[in-house]
Amino acid sequence: MKLKNSILSLLLIFTLFPVGIFGIFSIYATNRKIDEMAEQNLEAVSGNQIMNIQNFCDERKDEMQMIGSYSLTQDAILASLGKIDVEVNRDYVDNLLRERKKYVSFVASISILDRNFRVVGSSEHYEISEISTLKYIGAQYHTGEFVIGNTYERRTDDGLKKVVPAYVGAYYNNELIGYIAEELDTAYFNDLRLNMDSLAEGTFYLLDGKGAIITAGDTKQKNSIDNFVTKHSDRNDFQEKWDAIDHTANPSGKIHYHYQGMDYVTYYSNVENTDWGIRISENLTAQRETSKTYTVLILLSLGFITVGVLFTQNFVTKKILSPINAIMQTFARIRKTQDYSIRIPICTTDEMGQLAGGINKLLSFIEEEDMQEKARQRHLREMAECDPLTGIKNKKAIEQKMLELVQEASEKENQITVGFLDIDDFRNYNTNWGHAEGDSVIKFVADVLKKEFPGEVGRNGGDEFVFCLLGTITPERIREIASHILEQLNNAYTSDRTKETMPIPCSIGIVTAKSSNLSYADLIQWADEAMYKAKDAGKNTFHLIEYQADQDSSK
């Protein structure tokens, strides 16, 4: 009420001469400001959505390439092609794909295909050597390059879904041997649209390569609309300007056009690795509706202002425009830096000051929510990388870490140590004393490895563990560590069942290497061979291989 009363008092004092020019100028400036703010907001929303969808595509590409890089995947494809004489456990491959699907809710199916498009493994039911429909879709899906295709409906194991296919090649020794294929539920893109910020009267469209709608609507429409809001014949102005654009040279941009007497702007962009297009449209005329009441008030109230025009202009500038400008500048800084700790300076106690205070409270809430979301994401990542029984890294996490260490060792020619540990005759624990005893033994072995080995430790599955260390370490020190680990395993375990000390014999294989041409697959193979040499030597011992790159020898 303070701001309202101040303006009213000034107007009552200085209502003597008409100043229509000032009123017209104010209306014009306000409309321009509204248009500018609307376009800036729409451009920011468009940029964020394009980035979100592109990040989504990049994440799917990385995940699918990771599946293709697994030795299990490559063995299954090579066996399907008849290149290797190895019997692959298809049930294990299928279960692995089903487990991966569980962790990604929007993935309707995951499949592994050989280059002849025979299904090698899938998260869904299939016939052995069944030919995938990928073979008949188009040549762009046969190159091995990552691509996301057009929408279609299919009855999956989870019911009828509208999906889009994603494909990437699987390679072995730089040869395309097959494909990793996913079907992505388009409901994910509905959620992406619903989470858009600051889209007032606008409409968001995500279209596939055939112009079919993947998702469309505003932030209030939970379900995507199936057809365009307007008919093709009603969009002549838009269509003429759209057809005049060289989309090859200008894959993204904006179009201003008129429709039914109103002004619109549409931001558009292509999506990499797809034939998709994004369009976000906003009704600029609707944005100006809020200024009409303000226009009428100016024309009626300021019609006879003369002497007080300078005082009023100064007052409005100081009390209204400057705070609005401060709010806009704060929003611009937040949009640029993504730093929600920035606050609007509060210089007055009137409505603008109260508005700034309210916005600051909202920013505080957003900042807290952002921090909680980041903490939740960190927790989920840690859970995804942790073996639930032992608390150490699971197979996926330790493989990824070892790949990174091997690459770093190769690039910098640093020494790297890789090893396998296998519990000898582990089946006897489960058979003779029950699975609870077996689990207790596995946890004890993990604790000893984590405590005694100075590098990365993970569970490879079952009763097998892997470990890796980047950096120089002498063979004598390695033998000392391995001996100490075996000593702990044979003398320090007390059974919860019998309360007696029970030895846990294990076979350990270790390889050390230093070269600029290190291969993760070779190191794993050598460590595995070393472990079997330990078993051949009578078990409950270790075997060390020292790989010398210059003379290609080991001992």
Low-confidence stretches: 551-555
**Individual helix count:** 15
According to DSSP, the number of beta strands is: 16
State the major sheet: 6 strands, antiparallel
Descriptive report:
By secondary structure, this protein is of the alpha+beta class. It is 47% helix and 21% strand. Strands 1, 2, 3, 4, 5 and 6 form a six-stranded antiparallel β-sheet that branches. A five-stranded antiparallel β-sheet has the order 8-7-11-10-9, with helices on both faces. A hairpin with a 2-residue loop joins strand 9 (252-259) and strand 10 (262-270). Helix 1 packs antiparallel against helix 9, helix 12 (427-433) packs across helix 13 and helix 13 packs antiparallel against helix 14. The radius of gyration is 33 Å and the shape is elongated. The model is unreliable at 551-555 (pLDDT under 50).
Summarize the structure in short:
The protein is of the alpha+beta class and 555 residues long. The chain is 47% helix and 21% strand.
Task: Please name the defining characteristics of this protein.
555 residues, alpha+beta, six-stranded antiparallel β-sheet, five-stranded antiparallel β-sheet, 15 helices
Topology summary:
Blueprint: H1 2-13, H2 20-69, H3 71-81, H4 90-103, E1 107-114, E2 119-122, E3 147-148, E4 152-156, E5 159-172, E6 175-185, H5 187-194, E7 203-207, E8 213-217, H6 236-243, E9 252-259, E10 262-270, E11 277-283, H7 284-287, H8 289-301, H9 309-337, H10 351-385, H11 395-412, E12 416-423, H12 427-433, H13 435-452, E13 456-461, E14 464-470, H14 475-491, E15 506-514, H15 520-536, E16 542-548
Parallel strand pairs: 15-16
Antiparallel strand pairs: 1-2, 1-6, 3-5, 4-5, 5-6, 7-8, 7-11, 9-10, 10-11, 12-14, 12-15, 13-14
Helix pairs in contact: 1-9, 2-8, 12-13, 13-14
